[in-house]
């Protein structure tokens, strides 16, 4: 699931890794523009996702606010969180890996990397 998917710019990249991607955005207009990139689009506030508990294998937040309680709630027990910032440390939503892990409820391990301007964190529960 990609929260804050916007126009779906990154959705094809996620679809290259995950067989199904649910694009979630609050804006109907953004989801409409994403129609060619995402087959499953859901208009919703990321602070109250209309999904059952523990249903998604991964939650991707790309240049998006972190909604820690909802992210943890919908994520499968063995799932991963992808926290991605296109501008890395210079981006307005950048958080170091330790802060992202601390924001999520429970115990999380995190691996952080960067390339060019961007940075990303991959998090797993209790590892």
Provide a descriptive summary of the structure in words.
There is one protein chain. This protein is α/β, with parallel strands linked by helices. The chain has one domain (2-125): 3-Layer(aba) Sandwich (Rossmann fold), CATH 3.40.50. The protein is 20% helix and 35% strand. The chain is built from 4 helices and 7 strands. A 7-stranded mixed β-sheet has the order 3-2-1-4-5-7-6. α1 links the parallel β1 and β2. The two termini are 21 Å apart.
CATH class: Alpha Beta
Largest sheet: 7 strands, mixed
User: Per CATH, what is the topology?
Assistant: Rossmann fold
N-to-C SSE series? EHEHEEHEHEE
In spatial order, strands of the major sheet run 3-2-1-4-5-7-6
Q: Would you count the extended β strands for me?
A: 7
Structural class: alpha/beta
What is the average of the pLDDT values? Answer: 92
What is the total number of structural domains? 1
Radius of gyration: 14 Å
What would CATH call the homologous superfamily? Vaccinia Virus protein VP39
Shape: globular
Helical proportion?
A: 10-25%
Extract low-pLDDT stretches. Answer: none
The number of helices is 4
Query: What CATH architecture do you see?
Result: 3-Layer(aba) Sandwich
């Amino acid at each position: 699931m990609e929260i804050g998917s916007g126009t779906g710019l990154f959705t094809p990249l996620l679809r290259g890794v995950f067989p199904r991607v649910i694009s979630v955005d609050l804006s109907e207009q953004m989801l409409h523009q994403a129609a060619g990139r995402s087959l499953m689009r859901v208009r919703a506030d990321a602070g109250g996702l209309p999904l059952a508990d523990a249903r998604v294998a991964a939650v991707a937040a790309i240049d998006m606010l972190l909604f820690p309680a909802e992210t943890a709630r919908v994520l499968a027990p063995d799932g991963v969180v992808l926290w991605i910032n296109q501008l890395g440390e210079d981006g307005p939503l950048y958080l170091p890996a330790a802060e992202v892990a601390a924001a999520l409820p429970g115990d999380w391990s995190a691996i952080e990397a960067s390339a060019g301007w961007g940075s990303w964190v991959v998090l797993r529960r209790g590892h």
